[in-house]
Design a protein that fits this description.
The protein has about 290 residues and is mainly α. Helix content is about 55%, strand content about 5%.
Length: about 290
């Protein structure tokens, strides 16, 4: 599945290696991945909310590094497709397409459910594509969509204690909030650690692009929740922070993403606060 959400990451790693070494082989390989991913942009059945995961580390990284205008066009097409998923009634970006309904059904104890009004915490890491598009084109529409989506996630996905839902479901016609199913977490009301990490990093990045202090506050609150949980599990996150103690299952990707978010937060807080976030990030990485 060319449109699978992780497929942009390989290009991103190749661009990082090119940045670090200057070896043209990495650049050539990264551009090859970008050329293959371009087919996704013409497949309306394949496109979902993960356009940021696919095209920020590939097309946008290419343009930033090389100035390739074709890569810029791909990034902007991807941003337009992502913005096109915006539901103006509920002020959120729709997560998945109808073909996912049968896969999501078992989460709700049904064969198939209506997911037209679903948003998920993962998309906080996709909306930086919209911030980039606004900055690149000087067109504020992309940024408005990103901000509104983030505000909705603040209200319905991030909880007061800093934990997070994975999914928030709305009536797609009226925008009325309906449900918050467990999704990839242990259960409804639990806290899936990778989703938690998307919140830490995603809200911190939204602050970087908007300077809205509420986004930084939300990132910090979600970070504090994750830190407090990891501090009692030797700095490795459980797959779900509210799962039973046995069997213990860890997700090191959640630690890596959280670490990135903590280092991002550290760039935006007063000097006397920086060490708290950087030291926690380094402890996770060492663990």
């Amino acid at each position: 599945n060319l449109a699978w959400w992780t497929n942009g990451f390989w290009a991103g790693m190749l661009w990082q290696m090119y940045e670090a070494t200057g070896d043209e082989a990495y650049k050539t390989a990264a551009k090859g991945v970008g050329d293959r991913l371009a087919a996704v942009l013409g497949d309306s059945e394949a496109v979902d909310h993960d356009m940021g995961f696919l095209f920020l580390p590939s097309a946008v990284a290419d343009y930033r590094k090389t100035g390739d205008l074709n890569a810029r066009r791909r990034g902007l097409v991807a941003a337009n497709l992502l913005a096109g998923r915006y539901n103006p009634q509920g002020k959120f970006i729709r997560a998945w397409n109808d073909k996912m309904a049968e896969l999501a059904g078992p989460l709700m104890g049904a064969k198939k459910i209506d997911i037209r009004g679903w948003m998920i915490i993962d998309c906080m890491m996709n909306i930086p594509l919209l911030y980039w598009a606004s900055e690149e084109t000087k067109d504020p529409r992309f940024k408005y969509v990103a901000i509104n989506h983030a505000k909705t996630a603040q209200q319905y996905i991030a909880r007061p204690d800093g934990s997070c839902n994975h999914i928030a479901g709305f009536d797609p016609d009226t925008g009325e909030f309906l449900i918050a199913p467990g999704g990839q977490g242990y259960a409804e009301g639990s806290s899936w650690s990778r989703g938690q990490s998307w919140a830490v990093y995603g809200f911190a990045l939204s602050y970087r692009h908007t300077k809205d202090p509420s986004f930084l506050d939300t990132a910090k609150r979600c970070a504090h929740y994750g830190i407090s949980n990891m501090a009692v599990t030797d700095w490795l996150p459980l797959v779900d922070y509210r799962a039973p103690e046995t069997p213990l299952k860890y997700d090191t990707t959640a630690a890596m993403i959280t670490s990135c978010g903590l280092l991002e937060i550290a760039q935006h807080v007063p000097d006397h606060e920086k060490r708290f976030y950087t030291e926690a990030a380094y402890r996770m990485l060492r663990a």
